[in-house]
Amino acid sequence: MNELPNDCKNIKEYFLTRVFKGEEATKNDQNHRVAESILHYFSGFDVFSLPIPTYDKELMKDVKGNMDKMNPQFFTGVKQFEELLRSIMGPKRSCKEGEYVTGEGLAALTTLYVEAINDPHNVPNVQTAWETFVNIKCEGAKKKAITAYEKKAKEELSKLPCDDEEILRGNDSATHEMMATFEQETHGISIDHTKPYLEELTKLRFQKLGEWKNENDKKTRESCEKLVKRLRKKHLDPVLQRVSGPEGTNVSFKDIDDGCAVLELEYKSQAVGSKDVRAKVLHEFHQQFQIERERYKDVLKTLKDYNETLLLIRLQNTKAEKEKEDLRKQNDYLKQEMKIQEDKIKELDRKRAIELQEKLEEFQAKESILNTKIHDLEKAGMKDKITGLERERDDAKEDNERWKRELASVKSKLADLTEQLRLLNRPWWQRW
């Protein structure tokens, strides 16, 4: 056939009204049953024509080598066909809603299924094989995510001791790396499967944060105790030695207070690490020094400017500073723990929203396909097959509306949570 009939606008319509319908076809005719099956069971079909590449059989034996001698319109048509395939083809969905069978998944399924077939005590089951693959995939993704976290954390927190703010920032940065790795490795796997592993990673995030905090506190204490010991030896011990020596009467109480003042000043300028631990070590020094002063009390009282109140005030000030830093640190870490939990919820809701959007698009596509199939069956004169498809289309419409409502609910919840996180991260003076 060189030209289409006047009542057919394209080749597909010609197939529907001439080839599939056929004036001589009956319901018992095999060709009619084949046509009916194509229209009813497949999601859709299309028809296209390709120009003849060549009439020379010898050229067809080596198409690639003889492309320059063949009809160029044929290769243009092939490219158009390739573009058509890319536009309508996609990965197969698994037996679990919301999941796709990738090449990796198909290879794993094949291996697991062959193993089951070769095991006389095992009954092959596609769903069981898929669950096995997904669990192995998620477990591997979790291990890679943990490795990514630890690598990033070591880069960020390689120089301890440091401020608590750096610990929190480093943990955040490493967590971002961990979650990005996990999401990349579990792409195409539904939230129902990944949720338990996300819970495990959240627990790990708490655990690692605590480990970094404890390690930082330990190194801060070690560093600060060495610093206090060095500063005391430099500024205070020489004064105390004079008090207990033959020149004790020449020492004033102000000399002792000045030694403490210089020690405090240099300590605060040189101490590094967690602020609450730094404050604790300084307070402990003053507590210990108060005990030591009891040994020199009789001598100290003979000093003309003796004033124990000065050193007691220093003790009280360091206690107040310690308590303030304790509260600040507890507040910072409490906020971080709240953020970790909210991040987890937000991530779950975000993934749920993506899955719902994909489901919505899937059912919208299904509705469109069913409309096309109904139209094609009408064209082919197979109206008796339309009723079931119309019911299926109505069900798809209801599913569309249901997914729209659920998606809107999740998006609203996600927006509320985003706003809560924004308010939580404001500076303290903007919260009231």
TrEMBL record:
GO terms for molecular function: GTP binding; GTPase activity. Pfam families: GBP_C (PF02841). It comes from Stylophora pistillata (Smooth cauliflower coral). InterPro entries: Guanylate-bd/ATL_C (IPR003191), Guanylate-bd_C_sf (IPR036543), P-loop_NTPase (IPR027417). Residues 97-415 form the Guanylate-binding protein/Atlastin C-terminal domain. The keyword Coiled coil applies. Keywords: Coiled coil. This is Guanylate-binding protein 4. Residues 303-420 form a coiled coil.
